[in-house]
Amino acid sequence: WGVSLCLGLLPVLGWNCLHDRAACSVVRPLTKSNVTLLSASFFLIFLIMLHLYIEICKIVCRHAHQIALQQHFLTASHYVATKKGVSTLAIILGTFGASWLPFAIYCVVGDPDYPSVYTYATLLPATYNSMINPIIYAYRNQEIQRSMWVLFCGCFQAKVSFRSRSPSDV
């Protein structure tokens, strides 16, 4: 949060191109060097997240394997929960990359003379990424699915049976 605040305050702190239009980037009033710094920060953060999620997945799989050895078998519910948790992490990371990657690349290769609609077209998915994550988690959680079914389709009898799940199944 602190790093985000500092990066967001760069234009206010004087790191802007208001006095030199040639130094402007595709994201006005940021200078080209600032946008390059932001793009490099994105790539670094994305690589760190990718590494951490891979490590988390390794730990989860190792833990599931240890449970299987202790119980002499891996029950179907443990396997499904582990697989669903790993796939949820993959979806979250993939969504983050798909949302921010076009903007980060455009900031590096874009030209300030391009129409500003290109900047907005790549920035819009990036800003919606934080809004998409709760939807992904909600879609992956069967309790929330059941609540949404009752909320929106409560007038119909549900033919789908919902089983109770633990928080680790998300």
Automatic annotation (TrEMBL):
<dbReference type="InterPro" id="IPR000276">
    <property type="entry name" value="GPCR_Rhodpsn"/>
</dbReference>
<feature type="transmembrane region" description="Helical">
    <location>
        <begin position="35"/>
        <end position="54"/>
    </location>
</feature>
<feature type="transmembrane region" description="Helical">
    <location>
        <begin position="86"/>
        <end position="105"/>
    </location>
</feature>
<dbReference type="InterPro" id="IPR000723">
    <property type="entry name" value="GPR_3/6/12_orphan"/>
</dbReference>
<feature type="transmembrane region" description="Helical">
    <location>
        <begin position="117"/>
        <end position="139"/>
    </location>
</feature>
<keyword id="KW-0675">Receptor</keyword>
<keyword id="KW-0472">Membrane</keyword>
<keyword id="KW-0325">Glycoprotein</keyword>
<dbReference type="GO" id="GO:0005886">
    <property type="term" value="C:plasma membrane"/>
</dbReference>
<feature type="domain" description="G-protein coupled receptors family 1 profile">
    <location>
        <begin position="1"/>
        <end position="137"/>
    </location>
</feature>
<protein>
    <submittedName>
        <fullName>G-protein coupled receptor 6</fullName>
    </submittedName>
</protein>
<keyword id="KW-0807">Transducer</keyword>
<keyword id="KW-0812">Transmembrane</keyword>
<dbReference type="GO" id="GO:0004930">
    <property type="term" value="F:G protein-coupled receptor activity"/>
</dbReference>
<dbReference type="Pfam" id="PF00001">
    <property type="entry name" value="7tm_1"/>
</dbReference>
<keyword id="KW-0597">Phosphoprotein</keyword>
<keyword id="KW-1003">Cell membrane</keyword>
<dbReference type="InterPro" id="IPR001151">
    <property type="entry name" value="GPR6"/>
</dbReference>
<keyword id="KW-0297">G-protein coupled receptor</keyword>
<keyword id="KW-1133">Transmembrane helix</keyword>
<keyword id="KW-0449">Lipoprotein</keyword>
<dbReference type="InterPro" id="IPR017452">
    <property type="entry name" value="GPCR_Rhodpsn_7TM"/>
</dbReference>
<keyword id="KW-0564">Palmitate</keyword>
